[in-house]
Write a structure and sequence with these properties.
80 residues, alpha/beta, Rossmann fold, Rossmann-like_a/b/a_fold, ligase, ATP binding, nucleotide-binding, Arginosuc_synth
Length: 80
């Protein structure tokens, strides 16, 4: 069985997308949620992904990359 990785926020849209992808394409879904420094605990998001049918749900710590590659350049450019 083929797999697909879905950027997963834990909201209604991406939760429905997990089942839709499985039903319409017959693919197994692995979800990926990025920790960008938000205050909420992401474990419930991971659990929700598994509950709606993902075969695996990963959380990656992307805080340093987000600051280094997006936040800091935006501040330097005066865009924020």
């Amino acid at each position: 069985v083929d797999k697909v990785v879905l950027a997963y926020s834990g909201g209604l849209d991406t939760s429905v997308a997990v089942k839709w992808i499985k039903d319409h394409y017959g693919l197994e879904v692995v979800t990926l949620t990025a920790n960008l420094g938000q205050e909420r605990d992401l474990e419930p998001v991971r659990q929700r992904a598994l509950k709606v049918g993902a075969i695996e749900a990963r959380i990656v710590d992307a805080r340093k990359m987000f600051v280094d590659q997006f936040v800091w350049p935006a501040l330097q450019a005066g865009a924020v």
